[in-house]
Design a protein that fits this description.
This is Hydrolase. Keywords: Hydrolase. One of its GO terms (molecular function) is hydrolase activity. The chain has 105 residues and is α+β, with helices and mostly antiparallel strands. The chain has a domain of 68 residues. It has three helices and three strands. It has a three-stranded antiparallel sheet. Strand 1 and strand 2 form a beta hairpin. Helix 1 packs antiparallel against helix 2. The two termini are 29 Å apart.
């Protein structure tokens, strides 16, 4: 049997917490340890790609749409949001759907 716990997610800083604190969180999800590990991987990879985009931003002749770091960053966030949607409570599912960032919702 899956042992799901409640987690509070802040996408902007990649925070995943089991403690509902005064800090801002965006979404509430129910996940097991494997699912949280996978979500953490998406956030970590997005961070790596974001750093690559930062370095690229100092090269003025490379346009945004020609930067593969941006594409990979967007892809990781798409995966994270899809997972948050799949694991989220009703309110989380509604919020993610309203954002319109996941194709097919």
């Amino acid at each position: 049997m899956e042992n799901k716990k409640t987690y509070y997610i802040s996408v902007g800083n990649g925070q995943i917490s089991q403690v509902k604190t005064a800090d801002t969180y965006n979404f509430e999800i129910y996940a097991n340890d494997e699912e949280i590990t996978k979500l953490r991987e998406y956030f970590d990879q997005a961070y790596v790609e974001d750093l690559g985009s930062f370095v690229r931003s100092h090269v003025p002749f490379v346009e945004y749409h020609h930067n593969s770091n941006n594409d990979r960053y967007d892809e990781q966030l798409q995966k994270a949001y899809k997972m948050i949607y799949d694991l989220g409570n009703h309110e989380t599912k509604e919020l993610v759907a309203q954002m319109g960032i996941i194709n097919g919702l």
